[in-house]
């Protein structure tokens, strides 16, 4: 069994372990609820109903990740719920899990396809485990009266809730990174960085809303649910508009990328092949979701400068041109991209993609963006493959020849790390078992 196959099987086992742990926890909670009966049933029903509604009004985050901010915030609030309108509550950890699970499943079932959506199942498992962890930190201390014996009144109580929420957020980010890494092959460190970055965005709003609901419920009761869920719902609308803007940007870039193909400057599908290879290399080198998105944009538009040429390059193979001509085309493409309104990093990456790794004095150019180095290797690889096919070489022989050419120029034109990443990616593609 190859190393890649072993890693794939380990990822599958890891995902199943997370799902199994969440399912067993939910079954234990449901069993305890049936045997002992719910404490404060109308309160539990109110929280479950809002969690279900929150599951139905999800929002898409960068990287095509879906999240239910309202459902998560309300579940977290129930896990940290102490007094309700001045009266103590008595629900425990297992009831918190049972109510969260019931609300989540109620939101997933219509439509039924939600139960077959792996991303939603991952999110549901994460929520159950995270909320169970938060409830374990809070509920035993509250129900045993330990919090009453410690001077945790006023601001100190808020600090305690903040600590519980922060630990629960880190737990959720870690679980999300584990599942994201298993699903996409992204390195764990990069996946965790993505999740922590998301935590600083809408994640902070989720945590703050959960804390406010749990705190204010002690004074205003269940009215805290609609009172503090409404601002989060408005924030979701803003995130949804931002997602629409991102989608429009992606469509614009795809259209511009095809301009060189329609005009006959590059072979059909060249931009997409380069982008796919570049993203595979980016994942191999540990880039996060945001950097991968910018890398894909730049790779799709890397040849846009060819539109300024009077005569097309044969087969659009810019990697076979003189160095100075490659750089001129890259600079012209960067100027075009800068005027399209896409993120400025994209034009900066395209402007540098033809620059060699080493300066004329032999020193390594550390200012060269990693994305530019990746795109240069991906573009040269596709151009060399096309040239090999033109000479009648089989695909396997063409790939070996292209890799050998890139290795001969590594350290001068091409980044050695990127070339070796290409070798690893190609090896896994040829030998999946």
Structure description:
- The protein is mostly helical and 433 residues long.
- The protein has 2 domains: 242 residues; 168 residues, Hypothetical protein af1432, CATH 1.10.3210.10.
- It is 73% helix and 1% strand.
- The chain is built from 17 helices and 2 strands.
- It has a two-stranded antiparallel sheet with strand order 1-2.
- Helix 1 crosses helix 4.
- It is elongated.
- The protein starts with a helix and ends with a helix.
Which regions are unreliable across 5 or more consecutive residues at pLDDT < 50? Answer: 112-116
Please compute the radius of gyration using only Cα atoms.
27 Å
Shape: elongated
Going by helix content, strand content and strand pairing, the class is: mainly alpha
What does this entry show, briefly?
The chain crosses the membrane at residues 12-35, 93-112, 124-142, 154-179, 199-217. With 433 residues, the chain is an all-alpha fold.
